[in-house]
Give the backbone structure.
Amino acid sequence: MSKNREQWSSKFGFIMSSAGAAIGLGAIWKFPYVTGMSGGGAFLLMFIAFTILIGLPMLISEFIIGRGAQKEAVTAYKKLAPNSLWTITGPLGVIGCFLLLSFYAVVGGWVLIYSLMAVGGKVIQPNANYPELFGSVTATPTVTLLGLAAFLLINIIVISFGIKNGIEKASKYMMPLLFIFFIVLVLRSVTLDGAMEGISYFLNPDFSKITGESVLYALGQSFFALAVGFSCMVTYSSYLEKKVSIPSSAGSVVLMNIFVSILAGLAIFPVVFAFGFEPAEGPGLLFMVLPAVFSQIPLGEFFLAIFLILFLFATLTSSFSLLEIIVSAFTESGKHSRKKASWISGIVVFFAGIPAVLSFSLLKDFQIFGKTVFDATDFLVSNILLPLGCLLIALFISNKMNKQLVEQEFTLSNTSSPILFSTWKFLMKWVVPITIVVVFLGTVGII
């Protein structure tokens, strides 16, 4: 590793930062409502199985590519497969992260706005209409644009401080706080009258509820929830010391992701059932259902504020990885300073996010293929670019990357048996690519 290249200060810092990148909207927002729509406990079991069989091997692969090349995403593929078509994988990841951040930061802005409103006691009100409140917030351009700008400003400041003093330091505080807040929330949730019905729904599998669609949801969630596919983890692992075991680090990130997903379910489902709401409320669960639920609990505003703040932490730590892959692509050559690249990238993302922000107000009638700009960007990123990125990475590590280097990176500082390496190779060669193709065909409606 070059002497002037930054590194994580510790394995703990790397794991916290990687877990922070993985744990975001997917784990806390999307997972509960998709579980609610897909039958509860049976979906949870499928998600855990697919995360271990699909998500974990993909995460290990990105870690191997990044540390093996010791370069950020764009340069990594150029170094490992020079003058080949595989080099498009890095730029594809940067473009994907840029587009993803342009609408992810919109939701981040909403969470920031709601967090400030909850702390100020402005969300839970007597006889409040929460869908109407959410609609009025998202339909006010000045408010949502300020939310987007503030959310990106936090990202710019953290990324400009670098790996150790920026991302790692923020993640080392935010992630433990997220777990503490979540446990407080879960303890409150499971002690409510009628909470057991929600716990039973979430943890007791009812396999009669499983459909082809719910299987596809679980497959998709397994790798969408781990921040794999856009080479964010390639960039993160390029700052990793050789003495750190890749499989055990990836395993720690996956376990934390599963744990947070379970905590999210235990925080939400008992409360939803205790107050007679439907578990399959969809994406509005966070902004419309939960305020209504917390309004009926003593100290509800306080617990809602805790939930929104921890959700803000998770959203921020995920967005750090998206901005970092963009910034590192410009700073790798040494021609641009990290601070300058962070500000320019953040400002460009802000302007790119304006159409998505205005999709709920001034541009709500403007459509691309029958979708608003926000929904169209989400569809392009989640259903096309992300599966494509996952497939390219899976094929690259199985068929193109130097096999000796792959084995060396996998086994370095690792006491596991050769069977583990052989199992990972088999999964990446056959199971993961086939699964990704199935998910892709399912999400675009071909199967």
Summary: The chain has a mean pLDDT of 90. The radius of gyration is 21 Å. The domain at 11-443 is CATH 1.20.1740 (Amino acid/polyamine transporter I). The chain is about 75% helix and 0% strand.
